[in-house]
Amino acid sequence: MRPVERLLATARAEIGYIEKDTNAQLDDKTANAGDGNWNKYARDLDALGVVYNGKKNGYAWCDIFTDWCFIQTFGLELGLKLLCQAKKGVGAGCSGSANYYKQKGQFHTSGPQPGDQIFFTNDGGKTMYHTGIVEKVTADRVYTIEGNTSSAAGVVPNGGCVRDKSYPRNAKYIAGYGRPNWDLIKEEESMPEMTQDKFNEMFKVAMAAYRAELQDNDCGNFSADGRKFVTESGLLVGGNTLPNGEANFMWQDFLTREQFATVLYRFAQKFGLS
Fold first, then answer.
1. Distance from CA of residue 119 to its chain's centroid?
2. Is 131 helix (H, G, I), strand (E, B) or coil?
3. For the chain, which terminus, N or C, has the lower number of CB atoms within 10 Å?
4. Is 248 in contact with 239 (CB distance < 8 Å)?
């Protein structure tokens, strides 16, 4: 799964979460619903102790939700780099968060892309008052996932829940988009997606190579008496012949149930038990 898709999967899983009336039942999506701005996203980031310049649970949390999605998906260090944020900074606020992108030259006023952080303004872009994550873009609309909003039409700051929404791309209240530098994880993005079939094939190749290393007469001294007994009694017979002419018993290779049954049968025959 590509990095942007991983981020969006994290955000989508949170749709329907409602902020809490008190600092309790924060992990339940709908329990203890209220308007106290208490939420699990600020709790988790507060617990890290280095994300913001102070504890933020109980405050407006739209930007906190966005930061949580990045850090939850990519970890603390990489998450903050993608957000252009320094530790113990002011990224919990929308204007501060937008400024971090601007300082890195990663703020765009047009051309949104999935994974961008969208910023909303009500004063022509001087300040930002709401934010979210761009999920999808069409010719005329931008689709988002936002924290601390509602299902009502238009921009709803401090709305109290996580929702998926959409807006006209030319809306005056869209100030712009902060774009993470996905090249920070370019190596991961360029890797082919692992499927079960690919894993199975890789496992077969690796296992064949591993077994090839075991299929000779290498063995430990502790088994000398046992090896002598089974070879002299005929309980075990070598497979192919090694280049030096010795029978290859492959002492350290795996023993299948089929082979084990054959050994037991030979034992029974040898000692009159069958």
1. 25
2. strand
3. C
4. yes
> Which domain CATH number covers 156?
3.90.1720
What three-state secondary structure class fits 141?
A: strand
**Domain final position from 188, 214, 247:** 188
For the chain, the residue count is: 274
Instruction: Give the Cα separation of 248 and 240 in Å (integer).
Output: 6
Amino acid 270: pLDDT:
83
The C-alpha atoms of residue 97 and residue 100 are separated, in whole angstroms, by: 5
Distant-in-sequence, close-in-space partners of 26: CB < 8 Å, separation ≥ 6: 20, 38, 39, 40, 43
Residue-wise pLDDT for 41-98, tens only, equals: 999 999 999 999 999 999 999 999 999 999 999 999 999 999 999 999 999 999 999 9
Domain span at residue 261 reads 194-270
Are 83 and 124 contained in the same domain?
A: yes
Specify the pLDDT at position 188.
52
Low-confidence ranges of the chain (pLDDT < 50): none
Q: How many CA atoms lie within 13 A of 227 on its CB side?
A: 15
User: Do 251 and 142 fall within a single domain?
Assistant: no
